[in-house]
């Protein structure tokens, strides 16, 4: 009798302060790092993109293609690994493996027990024990700013992202679009701003409260640096 594969999601964090490596969410199947077997051009995708309340790894009846890894030099240069996942009864199926840079990805269709699979995705999505303080502050601050998006539209700004990078472990970066992403799609003038904010060892929730108040009390465009935009 064939044993159903078991999914484990392993978070990999490089040494803080190092320019090497990336934060990764690596799928481990029955103890095997399957990405390592077929792709050595770059890291697995960051957990911020694969996990969370609306994580693309959650399976539904509608098939969804999910990118699991990308080449360090970008997908357009040296490829990426995609899988199509869907729920079918009591199973979650991974199939349709694809690398735009290769003719074939030598991985089989995988059929997971839906209970074990969803329990693991939930566990990985709610376990933040691997985060360093700045990463925690960035995650919580982004959640707060998205909940209170109107506080930024007062300044004709839209949140892009709040990022914390392991090579700069004591700070976060807040990215804002002015007047918003829609201007890019519609061919109107736009700017991107970046604010670099120091993070301390204080309680992350307290820091988030202070930073949110700072970002929404005054026009962030007055203190942020321009880091992108239309000609």
End-to-end separation: 63 Å
Alpha plus pi helix count: 8
Largest beta sheet: what is the strand line-up?
Answer: 4-5-6-7
- Helical content stands at 25-40%
Number of strands: 11
What is the total domain count? 2
The fraction of residues assigned to DSSP E strands is 25-35%
Average pLDDT taken over every residue: 94
- So what's the overall shape? globular
The biggest beta sheet reads: 4 strands, antiparallel
Radius of gyration: 20 Å
Order of helices and strands: EEEHHEHEEEHHHEEHEHE
Contiguous runs where pLDDT drops below 50 for at least 5 residues: none
Task: Supply the helix-strand structural class.
Answer: alpha+beta
Provide a descriptive summary of the structure in words.
The structure is a single chain. With 231 residues, the protein is an alpha+beta fold. It has two domains: 7-126; 133-229, no CATH class. Helices cover 28% and strands 30% of the residues. The strands form three sheets. A four-stranded antiparallel β-sheet has the order 4-5-6-7. The chain has a four-stranded antiparallel β-sheet with strand order 8-9-10-11, with helices on one face. Strands 1-2-3 form a three-stranded antiparallel β-sheet. Helix 5 crosses helix 8. The chain starts with 6 loop residues before the first strand and ends with a strand.
SSE order and pairing:
Layout: E1 7-12, E2 24-29, E3 32-33, H1 34-38, H2 47-50, E4 64-70, H3 75-78, E5 80-88, E6 91-98, E7 110-113, H4 114-126, H5 133-147, H6 150-153, E8 158-163, E9 171-178, H7 181-185, E10 191-198, H8 204-217, E11 225-229
Antiparallel strand pairs: 1-2, 2-3, 4-5, 5-6, 6-7, 8-9, 9-10, 10-11
């Amino acid at each position: 009798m064939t044993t159903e594969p078991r999914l484990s999601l392993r978070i990999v964090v490089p040494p803080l302060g190092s320019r090497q490596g990336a934060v990764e969410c690596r799928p481990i199947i029955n103890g095997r790092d399957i990405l390592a077997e077929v792709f050595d051009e770059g890291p697995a995708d960051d957990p911020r993109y694969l996990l969370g309340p609306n994580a693309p790894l959650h399976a539904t009846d509608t098939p969804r293609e999910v990118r699991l890894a990308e080449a360090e030099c970008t997908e357009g240069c040296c490829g990426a690994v995609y899988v199509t996942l869907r729920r079918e009864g009591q199973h979650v199926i991974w199939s349709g493996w694809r690398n735009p840079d290769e003719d074939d990805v030598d991985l089989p269709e995988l059929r997971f027990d839906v209970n074990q699979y969803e329990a693991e995705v939930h566990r990985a999505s709610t376990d933040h024990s691997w985060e360093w303080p700045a990463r925690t502050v960035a995650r919580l601050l982004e959640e707060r700013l998205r909940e209170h998006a109107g506080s930024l539209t007062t300044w004709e700004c839209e949140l892009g992202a709040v990022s914390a990078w392991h090579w700069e472990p004591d700070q976060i970066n807040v990215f804002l679009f002015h007047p918003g992403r829609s201007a890019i799609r519609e061919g109107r003038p736009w700017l991107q701003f970046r604010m670099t904010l120091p993070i301390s060892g204080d309680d992350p929730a307290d820091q988030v409260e202070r930073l949110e108040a700072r970002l929404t009390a005054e026009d962030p465009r007055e203190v942020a640096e321009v880091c992108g935009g239309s000609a």
